[in-house]
Amino acid sequence: MREKKSKPLILITNDDGISAPGIRKLIRIMKDLGDVVVVAPDSPQSGKGHAITIDATLYVRKIQGMGDGVSEYECSGTPADCVKLGIKEVLKRKPDLCVSGINHGSNASINVIYSGTMSAAIEAGIEGVPSIGFSLLDYDWEANFEGLESYVKKIARNVLDNGLPDGIVLNVNFPKITDIPYNGMKIVRQARANWNEKFDKRTNPMGKEYYWLTGEFENLDGGEDTDEFVLAENYVSVVPVQFDLTAHHFLQTLKSWEL
Amino acid sequence: MREKKSKPLILITNDDGISAPGIRKLIRIMKDLGDVVVVAPDSPQSGKGHAITIDATLYVRKIQGMGDGVSEYECSGTPADCVKLGIKEVLKRKPDLCVSGINHGSNASINVIYSGTMSAAIEAGIEGVPSIGFSLLDYDWEANFEGLESYVKKIARNVLDNGLPDGIVLNVNFPKITDIPYNGMKIVRQARANWNEKFDKRTNPMGKEYYWLTGEFENLDGGEDTDEFVLAENYVSVVPVQFDLTAHHFLQTLKSWEL
Asked: Which domains does chain A carry?
């Protein structure tokens, strides 16, 4: 175990790419809490889910960094690849904490399933590293991140102090920042939601039809204890996320089937 | 609701690509149960997790098929894209069942997280379609699929008859086929496991270092009620999988933190 007095080692990654304003903000916040090493994708990886690169080569390159005075590596792979390479090849040991983000856009409710940000956090959790994904409900590249610093620090300090149980990571979402400060933070569950896809069908210059995936978000959950509900009320949402996907409550019913 | 007497509409996809022997086998099995439409990736998508294509174009092309006498479409996207496009653009309605696979390789235990096969099944579940992912513990392209037909049919018939609760899909894994018939089928939970990555570091002809991701599977779970355990005992494993990732059992503890 690391001695209490030594600075914790913190691995930072994201899915928007190493140059995204969200990860730069997270780096500057986390520098106050420990020794920071960044291993992040060299290009945007949004929507990559828990993809890993098994049929192609992976590059990792130490870069100059962007003036934040921390060690930085860019990687050709997915967010999950970054965590694997970060732990095994760059750090060569488990960090005390892994933080992913700050994502430009929501990872609340069903978005957690598609999220590269959360997949990086989950990958760290699988490897036994306490881990948090942070996301801001603002898809703008020039999003305003001023106002969430104290929440990020409080959550990260708590995880450094308390650890997290095996198999659990945290999914933290911040409402879009406005003139009105957040109302506080709420521990909630993932809302049942869905994207109602609309495919935008077009014809390319060669006459071939193609599609763009777009969609409308549908919150199917009437509960007031969900991430979607509290985010709409201007609270920061914290959902404990597990990667044991077993629907334990359905095991008994399934055993009664004639299989 | 569809009338009981009409044939069910079954959407088939996979992650190994539309020409993989595993999906061809699944098509031939499912033809006995209903009207089959195939929408599958035009190239292998293993390890793609729940990736979706949001920053690139998507192509879907009706193809001649491969002699199995069903409607077939190949798609340039991921397994999850195939399901979205299959429901919204190809079928233009929800099918009665979605089946994904048969994957060449295990999607038991932690593999479910990285699996394109299971992500397709989960995507269908998110859209409210009863759904099953099938995988064979044999990574060989020329894997032997003879011997699992009756299990696939029994499970699919049960899902068609009983439906599945909202938010739950099935993850079915088959032991590698040998001369010894399967011992039967067991309803189990996902084993706690991890891939202990080993990065194979090489130098390319231009002198630049790169990596291949490889690893050794570690079953960290001593339980006898897990997929890994029963698969090793030559049973077919069935795990009900949910996409509500909330660690409900940790909510109360987390609320006691000083957040």
From this structure: 9-190+224-255 (3.40.1210.10)
pTM to 2 decimal places: 0.93
Q: At CA A63, angle to CA A59 and CA A69, rounded to 5? A: 140
User: CB-based contacts of A9: which residues, under 8 Å, 6+ apart?
Assistant: A2, A34, A35, A37, A91, A93, A95, A96, A97
How far apart are the C-alpha atoms of B240 and A227, rounded to whole Å?
Answer: 24
Q: Cβ A242–B241 below 8 Å, yes or no?
A: no
Q: Residue A191 in 3-state DSSP?
A: coil
What are the tens digits of pLDDT across the range B192-243? Answer: 999 998 899 999 999 999 999 998 999 999 999 999 999 999 999 999 999 9
Query: What residue of B is the nearest CA neighbor of A243?
Result: B245
Q: How far B2 CA lies from chain A's nearest CA (Å)?
A: 22
Yes or no: say if B71 and B37 are a contact pair by the CB < 8 Å rule: yes
Give the Cα separation of A51 and A55 in Å (integer).
11
Question: Chain A to chain B, count of Cβ pairs less than 8 Å apart?
Answer: 214
**Would you call B110 and A243 a contact, using CB atoms and an 8 Å cutoff?**
yes
Q: Which residue has the tokens 């003879």?
A: B146
Give the HSE-up count for residue B7: Cα atoms under 13 Å, Cβ half-sphere.
11
Q: So what's the ipTM on this one?
A: 0.91
**CA A180 – CA B71 distance, rounded (Å):** 55
Distance CA B199, CA A36 (A): 23
Give the Cα separation of B18 and B44 in Å (integer).
8
- What are B65's two structure tokens? 């098929």
**Per-residue CA distances from A85 to A78, A95, A120, A146, B61 (Å):** 10, 12, 11, 31, 37
Determine the Cα–Cα distance for residues B179 and B199; give it in Å rounded to an integer. 35
Distance, in Å, from the CA atom of A192 to the CA atom of A217, rounded to the nearest integer, reads 11
**CB within 8 Å of A67: residues ≥ 6 apart:** none
| Secondary structure, 3-state, A212-237 | EEEEEEEECCCCCCEHHHHHHCCCEE
